[in-house]
């Protein structure tokens, strides 16, 4: 509804106003001197034993494995960043479980969300994971205001065309076994 959209827009405006937009990581070379540009994707896979340890730690702390990984990733970034509060780009599924024959449907059912991360208080990984998990759920709750809408707000407020250049993705929680694990966390409506 338009009322929900307006409420979600206010939520995102407040987030943008209180958080710096990107991590300021030192650069090795002035951008204008770079000849060859490109993006780098780093892929890491867990062995079964490692995945079991990760999920055990997450469950013990009542967080999802995704939140735990996002927190560790954020803490590493904040070690190198001049600012400890910034946004990360996190793709999110927007497929509804009510869609019939979902596995036979072709198309993109995703959105991206800008997740604010703040490590300025240097919280423990467990405490920061709880904060990030709540933030993920809040952002999901305010998702009628799409990532492209948030991007326009960033451009209007701070002139940034790429406000969160670092993207965190993970397929943890995307298979049936992981969804059962998530249900054990008693988190409803979380992918």
How are the elements arranged and paired?
Layout: H1 2-18, H2 48-60, H3 65-80, E1 85-93, E2 110-118, H4 125-141, H5 147-158, H6 176-184
Antiparallel strand pairs: 1-2
Helix pairs in contact: 1-5, 3-4
Describe this structure in a few short sentences.
The chain has a two-stranded antiparallel sheet.
Give an overview in words:
With 191 residues, the protein is mainly α. Helix content is 44%, strand content 9%. The protein has a two-stranded antiparallel sheet with strand order 1-2. Helix 1 (2-18) crosses helix 5 (147-158) and helix 3 crosses helix 4.
Keywords for this structure?
single chain, 191 residues, mainly alpha, two-stranded antiparallel ribbon, 6 helices, 2 strands, disordered C terminus
């Amino acid at each position: 509804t338009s009322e929900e959209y307006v409420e979600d827009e206010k939520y995102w405006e407040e987030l943008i106003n209180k958080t710096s937009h990107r991590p300021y990581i030192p650069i090795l070379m002035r951008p204008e001197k770079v000849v060859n540009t490109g993006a780098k994707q780093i892929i890491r896979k867990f062995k079964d034993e490692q995945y079991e340890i990760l999920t055990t730690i997450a469950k013990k702390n009542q967080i999802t494995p995704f939140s735990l990984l996002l927190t560790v990733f954020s803490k590493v970034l904040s070690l190198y960043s001049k600012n400890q509060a910034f946004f990360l780009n996190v793709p999110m599924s927007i497929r509804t479980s009510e869609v019939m024959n979902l596995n036979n449907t072709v198309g993109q059912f995703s959105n991206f969300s800008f997740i604010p991360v703040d490590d300025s208080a240097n919280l423990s990984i467990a405490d920061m994971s709880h904060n990030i998990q709540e933030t993920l759920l809040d952002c999901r709750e305010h998702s009628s205001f799409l990532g492209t809408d948030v991007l326009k707000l960033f451009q209007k407020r701070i002139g940034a065309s790429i406000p969160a250049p670092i993207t965190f993705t993970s397929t943890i929680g995307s298979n049936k076994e992981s969804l059962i694990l998530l249900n054990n966390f008693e988190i409803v409506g979380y992918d």
